[in-house]
Amino acid sequence: MELLNRYLHAVRFWLPKAQQEDIIAELGEDLRSQIEDRETQLGHPLDDDGIAAVLKQRGNPMVVASRYLPRHSLIGPALFPVYQFILRLVILWILPPVFILVVGPAAILSSRHPSLALIETLWTMLMAAVFAFGVITLIFAALERYPHESTLRWDPRRLPRVPPAKPANRPQPVPGYMAIVEVLAGIGASLVWIEVMYWTRIAQGFDFDGVSITLTPIWRGFFWPILLVALSGVPIGLMGWLRPWWMRARSLARLAVDGVSLILTGALVNMGPWVRVTAANLPATGVADANRWANVGMSIGLGVASIIILVDAVQEVRRLVRQKPAGSSIPIAVRR
Amino acid sequence: MQHTVSTNDAFENLRLELRRGCLILAVLAQLGTEHYGYALRKALASRGMEIDENTLYPLLRRLESQGLLISEWREEDKRNKRFYRLSGEGDRILHQLLEEWRSINSSLTRIVEGEAVVSG
Lengths: 336, 120
Known about the structure:
The structure holds two protein chains of two kinds. In chain A, 68% of the residues lie in helices and 4% in strands.
């Protein structure tokens, strides 16, 4: 019965101290009775293999012991869906964009060893995720044991209103005011770009307190393409305002502009530096740092712009897929 | 084939849930006569109520902690065994549970046979 004693010893390890002797005595007695019955059936004593089979059928010692323990859950079924939601939100939708768009580029571009900086960034992101997991789990475990009164008392009249249902899979024309905003934004962006490049001192340098920031010459090669992209908002906006049912044409135009914009930002991202900082009253190392950080900021801005353009392009593709081919009748609701 | 397997699994899970609800009643009813754990399990199994050992013993301890059972260690056949029997409170609860079970049984019969429940 050495095997049986080892099994009982293993179960004992997982039991609460106060109940160990009692439970082990009863469990041992039950197992001995079971072994005796088996031996009576077979007509001979069980060897180690036979006893092992009986013990295996009873189950893993840790599992057997756990049945004697009170059932606790760290986070109960009521709070678990909220916990899961918050965890997903932080670990999938907040941490990765922050690290990919801000922390990572800043670390990589300011480091003398970009590949090492990338690895460090990924490791830091992983550690941040682990830390977030721990903090969120602790908070919800505390809420499980000390529920806030807001979870216990609630008023159906304070529930949010149901949003109006969107027609399923039917793209809507751009509202009139949005089309006007698009026209004005196109004009405004074009004027700002012209102002930046030619008419003010920004093209020759923006000075304050002896520090001068200028655009590097690479931008001049992009003047006309960027101006045309900015101006494209005007005809597209006019189309949306005067011919709102030309949804397919509008989407195609937007998609074309997004494509050109992506090519431009892609080309710009691969060039650099984008700005030059000079300062008569700073030491050389300070100027070098200022240049590095200014260009890091520009690269992050270009990266963010690329992502925004890409998201817009994907949305236009989805609109195109959901629209009927050209030549369909004008919806009555959008005639002006 | 996959549908049959998942249907079997679904039935098995629901069957276990159904039986789980009756286990406490079966154990209390059987302990109207004193039994030790192993004998109790065999007695229940012989009457069609199989119960896993890892379920029975924790259940007995829980019922005892709730004051429904009394246990004592005694020597039998040269071995120490723990014998369980109903306490006074356990006997009272058993009768209440049996009433409840009969009521549920009647309701279920009416539901299955499609009879309306006449209240009052």
